[in-house]
From TrEMBL:
<feature type="domain" description="SWIRM">
    <location>
        <begin position="224"/>
        <end position="285"/>
    </location>
</feature>
<dbReference type="GO" id="GO:0050660">
    <property type="term" value="F:flavin adenine dinucleotide binding"/>
</dbReference>
<feature type="compositionally biased region" description="Basic and acidic residues">
    <location>
        <begin position="8"/>
        <end position="19"/>
    </location>
</feature>
<feature type="compositionally biased region" description="Basic and acidic residues">
    <location>
        <begin position="146"/>
        <end position="160"/>
    </location>
</feature>
<feature type="region of interest" description="Disordered">
    <location>
        <begin position="1031"/>
        <end position="1075"/>
    </location>
</feature>
<feature type="compositionally biased region" description="Low complexity">
    <location>
        <begin position="75"/>
        <end position="91"/>
    </location>
</feature>
<dbReference type="InterPro" id="IPR007526">
    <property type="entry name" value="SWIRM"/>
</dbReference>
<feature type="compositionally biased region" description="Acidic residues">
    <location>
        <begin position="1066"/>
        <end position="1075"/>
    </location>
</feature>
<feature type="compositionally biased region" description="Basic and acidic residues">
    <location>
        <begin position="92"/>
        <end position="101"/>
    </location>
</feature>
<dbReference type="InterPro" id="IPR036910">
    <property type="entry name" value="HMG_box_dom_sf"/>
</dbReference>
<dbReference type="GO" id="GO:0005634">
    <property type="term" value="C:nucleus"/>
</dbReference>
<comment type="similarity">
    <text>Belongs to the flavin monoamine oxidase family.</text>
</comment>
<dbReference type="GO" id="GO:0010468">
    <property type="term" value="P:regulation of gene expression"/>
</dbReference>
<dbReference type="InterPro" id="IPR009057">
    <property type="entry name" value="Homeodomain-like_sf"/>
</dbReference>
<keyword id="KW-0175">Coiled coil</keyword>
<dbReference type="InterPro" id="IPR036388">
    <property type="entry name" value="WH-like_DNA-bd_sf"/>
</dbReference>
<dbReference type="GO" id="GO:0016491">
    <property type="term" value="F:oxidoreductase activity"/>
</dbReference>
């Protein structure tokens, strides 16, 4: 069955290739030319089915596509590009309400009158249906659905026919829920699947809340979430093939919820939560061009082939296929998507530069391409929703290397820095950040509409459905005297995040929920292990109010002040300053900027959105990801060497003409433009906008920061470093080596401060050094020779005088790169809290994507990709209209009328009715003979720490209260948790022993229960098999029809019935009956 075949496919395999260009070339040896290899293959003929072999071969095919071989840059325009004249002729007519569309709408409504859908018959109002919203029966997305009915009276808005009532011929309840699985086990599966997304298994996303609040009650949230999580489970199990609407609807246990499942599916698809990336969409019969019917074909021009641009174009390609029939309904051909890229390669700031070596000297490297990463390179964890997990591991199956986080710091004399001292300094550094985090922007907590966890954990839906919609309850409450307004109801508790340690690989602080600066500074320093200067009492506190109030205060100015104040109460020596400034250099690396250029309020606006899991690098080059997006499963229309110089657009409406002009004078007419040009280029103003961008956009462009991080990459004949270590750090001296003046450290701290051994991903012995903060800017105007010389000196201080000169070296200069003008965005000193949102906001038919348009994941590859998904969804909204919620959304429970209707339907398809009855009877028979499927025993706390923290909660709380500053309130549960974990770390082996023993005992008992359960399951299943045969003998089974793939009465296969039970938003690529 297709559903059950959605097995997890996350094996590693091989991937390779990237093109090269010479932006950063600095070669000592004469370059060895790569043999010319054939261009990228095509994979258009991939077949997708539930067959595992086919799925595997499809993954292999993806690999063959992206691995390709070293290739010429020119061969990157892989798609058969339409002649520019055909694009030039695509200018759009202003008339949006052409005759064919109008007649379609008329046809549609008159058909509805003649054949009203069963659901359009007014039914008895029922307590258990989702009430037609008391406040509004319209979609809650920001669209005036009614405006489509007046034939487009609003001239600026595109005409959209009313959403057709639709029916599903292939839908049956529960078919996507494995029949033999215990409900709580299925629930666990679903919840685990949601863990791999950015959604909360137990709560509505903000957009889901907006979509549903007028249509479902609080009690119905659990059922909705169960269905939505079920759909995500299908996707997580096999992201090589798209989840179909029919499968999604099969996650509903009751046909009354089909529309909900369908709606949830639409939301998940359109928002790129499922079916994204290099997924093979089914061939659509609606995608054929038939101009004779007078349909228009729109053009979407995406500017930039970095992760944002390619992610957006790939997603648009999938969405267009998915909603092709809907497009036909509104009189549109499937739009064409063209990507214009200024460089001669794709990937943008992800650039895996080819190394001039024919064969890897490393024995285990295999046949991957030999590359070094000039730009983005680290995947910061696959878990908790990183979409690149799906693409890298689930779809392209690229090999990757897990980075070992242990990092030794070396002083300039080559000696390793004492770990204890470094920990002490890292603690002080984090304490400074903790104190400063009280000045952060306070973001309003999001709405939190949760399902019933207990029910959901057991895999059960709510039986009490409630009469009032969420909106009704919220608005009624708000109308009461002294009640909070709607926006303040049902909000998540305000959680502040405080830095507790540093991720040394990314330089970003690791945070925990808590209250910043709870303890007085002297008391805290003492608790960390510092000796206070003589005469300083534990009551002493730093004054950060004064420096933070200075006009133009930045993170760096306040932090420098904080360090200077600490110097007054602690004995800080030059080594301490070197160490502190090494950590600051790491922070400057993560922000690609001197920290004096970072906003005091917004420097870590993205905190709390980090992924989990090991940091990794792609073997053979990160650029395999953008190349995979470009090529798999079919090539996108990417035109390289097309630098854009002018963008004209229609500001007032998403419908209107647009045009893009390239440097060589070529013009591309478009209906929608997605601009992913980096913020640095936008700041520079080398691309002209007509009309000029509105001031709210240009001001945000100015306020946001865009700094630089550079790399010096040295390739050697052999490794002279420990091949098993991925990192080492070097603390740098200031010009006056013994200085204890914080200002003296700025210029030097980021010079060759962090080194990576990237040999295992590059295939050659190579060391890569970061140049961060002011040092990064210096690189832009320092000669290669000088840089390599200095790098060699630093290495000699670490490894001794025998360090050779590298045989090849690469230096990045991202600020001088005309297509980047820097490395990545940061929070500029004057940044406003919503500047990233402003960057993302479309202006008419001009849409924006790129790492600088995502406040939750800026400055990253995954953030760029996510922004591409968001922009694609916005363009789809402009194309076909937003998601429309049918009303009532949840069908009423059976009434005499509905039963009659059902009986009539069953008369129309008696076979199916008999089959359903057979199935139900069989399950009753089974249960009467052998009872329910055995329930899996619940998990136990098998970890000693959990048992310890439970037992020591109160003691930890008391500890949190010690030394607490006045007015900082009671310790939050998470502060207590941090304390218990510290106590656990500090506990002696004797203290830990009883908890460890208890944990072992509990685990053993659980294992025993699992063994018993497994035996019971085996027994139950074998009996069930026998009983099925017995039952089939007594009650012979009848096949539904010829389309039944497996002839079984139940299961996840797509079935084709004749009649339809439901309706939902307009059309996608499935059988649709319009009444
Ligand atoms: C040195 C460095 C290290 C980094 N390290 C990491 C890391 O370890 N992990 C991580 O997640 N992120 C990292 N990043 C950040 C990450 O690489 C970027 O955030 C991400 O790649 C940006 O993607 P994008 O699509 O927004 O922009 P880009 O990749 O820059 O894509 C924009 C595209 O637009 C093109 N373009 C520009 N102007 C024009 C024009 N006028 N006409 C046509 N095309 C144009 C560009 O050529 C480019 O291809 C790093 C970046 C750098 C520079």
């Amino acid at each position: 069955m297709e559903t059950t075949l959605r097995t997890k496919l996350i094996d590693k395999s091989v991937g390779k290739d990237s093109p090269s260009d010479s932006d950063f070339d600095f070669v000592f040896d004469p370059p060895i030319a790569h043999p010319r290899k054939p261009p990228i293959g095509q994979s258009d003929n991939l077949k997708v089915s539930g067959d595992l072999e086919e799925i595997d071969s499809m993954a292999a095919n993806f690999n063959s596509v992206i691995r390709g071989d070293p290739m010429d840059i020119d061969s990157l325009s892989v798609s058969p590009s339409p002649s520019s004249s055909s694009l030039l002729s695509l200018s759009r007519k202003a008339d949006k309400l052409d005759t064919p569309k109008r007649s379609l709408r008329l046809q549609h409504s008159s058909l509805q009158e003649i054949h009203p859908s069963p659901l359009s018959v007014p039914s008895e109002p029922s307590d258990h249906s989702s009430n037609p919203s008391v406040i509004s029966s319209k979609a809650t997305t920001p669209v005036d659905v009614d405006s489509s009915r007046d034939g487009g009276a609003k001239k600026a808005e595109p005409y959209r026919p009313r959403v057709s009532r639709r029916t599903y011929s292939n839908s049956r309840p529960k078919v996507s829920i494995p029949p033999g699985m215990a409900p709580h086990e299925y629930a666990t599966d679903c919840i685990l699947a949601v863990d791999w997304t950015m959604l909360n298994a137990y709560a509505l996303h903000q957009e889901e809340y907006a979509l549903l609040r007028h249509h479902i009650s609080y009690a119905q949230v659990s059922t909705y979430l169960n269905i939505r999580n079920g759909i995500l489970r299908l996707w997580a199990n096999n992201p090589l093939v798209p989840v179909t609407r029919e499968e999604a609807i099969g996650c509903a246990k009751d046909p009354r919820w089909f529309d909900v499942a369908s709606l949830s599916y639409d939301w998940l698809v359109r928002k790129g939560q499922i079916n994204f990336g290099c997924v093979k969409h089914r061939k659509s019969k609606h995608l054929t061009t038939n101009k004779s019917q007078g349909r228009k074909q729109k053009t979407i021009v995406v500017i930039g082939a970095g992760l944002a641009g390619l992610g957006c174009a790939r997603q648009l390609d999938g969405l267009i296929r998915h909603y092709s029939q809907r497009l036909l309904e509104i009189g549109e051909e499937a739009p064409r998507v063209v990507v214009l890229e200024g460089r001669s390669r794709v990937g943008g700031r992800v650039y895996s530069r080819a190394v001039n070596t024919e064969q890897s000297p490393l024995p285990d490297f295999g046949s991957e391409r030999l590359t070094v990463e000039m730009g983005g390179m680290i995947l910061t964890g696959f878990e908790r929703g990183n979409p690149l997990n799906t693409i890298v591991r689930g779809q392209l199956k690229l090999p990757y290397h897990e980075l070992k986080p242990d990092l030794d710091l070396y002083d300039m004399n080559g000696k390793v820095v004492d770990k204890k001292r470094d920990n002490l300094l890292e603690g002080l550094y984090n304490d400074c950040l903790d104190r400063i985090s009280q000045y952060k922007f306070k973001l309003p907590p999001p709405k939190l509409i949760e399902g019933n966890r207990d029910l959901m954990d057991e895999g059960r839906d709510s039986t009490a459905e409630g009469q009032k919609t969420i909106a009704y309850v919220e608005e009624t409450t708000a109308s009461l005297p002294h009640a909070p307004p709607v926006s303040e109801q049902n909000v998540a508790p305000q959680v502040e995040l405080v830095p507790i340690s540093t991720d040394c690989i990314t330089g970003k602080p690791n945070v925990e929920p808590g209250v910043p600066a709870t303890q007085k500074s002297a008391a805290k320093a003492k608790a960390m292990g510092w000796n206070l200067k003589q005469g300083v009492s534990e009551d002493h506190d730093l004054d950060l109010e004064t420096p933070s109030q200075v006009p133009g205060a930045t993170l760096g100015s306040v932090m420098d002040d904080c360090i200077t104040q600490y110097k007054q109460i602690l004995e800080l020596n030059p080594l301490d300053f070197r160490l502190l400034n090494w950590h600051i250099a790491n922070l400057e690396y993560s922000n690609a900027n001197n920290y004096r250029n970072l906003s005091l309020q917004g420097w870590d606006i993205d905190t709390g959105n980090e992924w989990e899991g090991k940091h990794t690098m792609i073997v053979g080059g990160y650029q395999n990801v953008p190349r995979g997006l470009m090529s798999s499963p079919s090539p996108l229309d990417v035109k390289t060497k097309s630098p854009v110089t002018r963008i004209s657009y229609t500001p007032g409406s998403s419908e209107g003409s647009a045009q893009v002009e390239c440097e060589d004078g070529t013009n591309f007419d478009a209906d929608y433009i997605v601009n992913t040009i980096p913020l640095g280029v936008l700041k520079q103003g080398s691309v002209k906008f007509e009309p000029e961008l509105p001031s709210w956009k240009t001001e945000a462009i100015q306020r946001l920061g865009f700094g630089v991080l550079n790399k010096v990459i040295l390739i050697y004949d052999a490794m002279f470093w420990d091949p098993n270590k991925d990192f080492f750090g070097v603390v740098r001296n200031p010009p006056h080596a013994r200085s204890v003046n914080q200002k003296d450290y700025t210029a030097q701290r980021g010079r060759f401060f962090q080194w990576l051994n990237v040999s295992s991903t590059s295939g050659v012995p190579v060391l890569l050094a970061f140049m961060a903060g002011d040092a990064a800017s210096d690189v832009e105007h320092t000669s290669n020779d000088d840089l390599v010389r200095e790098a060699t000196e630093v290495l000699k201080s670490r490894f001794g005088q025998r360090v050779p000169y590298p045989r090849q070296a690469f230096v990045s200069r991202w600020a001088s790169d005309r297509f980047a003008r820097g490395s990545y965005s940061s929070a500029g000193p004057d940044m406003k809290v919503d500047d990233y949102d402003k960057m993302a906001k479309p202006v008419g038919n001009l849409f924006f994507a790129g790492e600088h348009t995502t406040g939750t994941h800026p400055a990253t590859v995954h953030g760029a990709y996510l922004s591409g998904l968001r922009a694609a969804s916005e363009v789809l909204d402009a194309l076909i209209g937003p998601i429309v919620v049918p009303t009532p959304l949840i069908r009423p429970r059976e009434t005499p009328q509905s039963l009659k209707r059902k009986a009539e339907q069953h008369l129309r398809d008696p076979k199916r009715a008999r089959l359903e009855a057979w199935e139900m009877e069989y399950w009753d028979f089974l249960r009467s003979k052998i009872g329910e499927y055995p329930y899996k025993p619940a998990k136990v706390a098998g970890h000693a720490y959990l048992l310890y923290s439970k037992a020591h909660y109160e003691a930890a709380r008391q500890k949190c209260l010690e030394g607490r500053r006045a007015g900082k309130g009671k310790p939050a549960p998470n502060e207590v948790r941090v304390m218990t974990s510290k106590m656990w770390k500090d506990a002696s082996p004797e203290e830990k022993k009883p908890f460890e023993e208890q944990a072992v005992k509990q685990k053993e008992e659980h294992a025993e229960r699992l063994r018993n359960w497994n035996e019971k399951v085996k027994d139950w299943e074998s009996k069930a098999q026998e009983l099925r045969k017995e039952f089939e003998k007594i009650n012979p089974i009848e096949k539904v029809n010829d389309n039944d793939d497996d002839g079984q009465p139940s299961g996840g296969r797509r079935r084709r019935g004749r009649f339809v039970e439901s309706y939902a938003e307009g059309s996608d690529d499935e059988d649709v009956a319009i009444y």
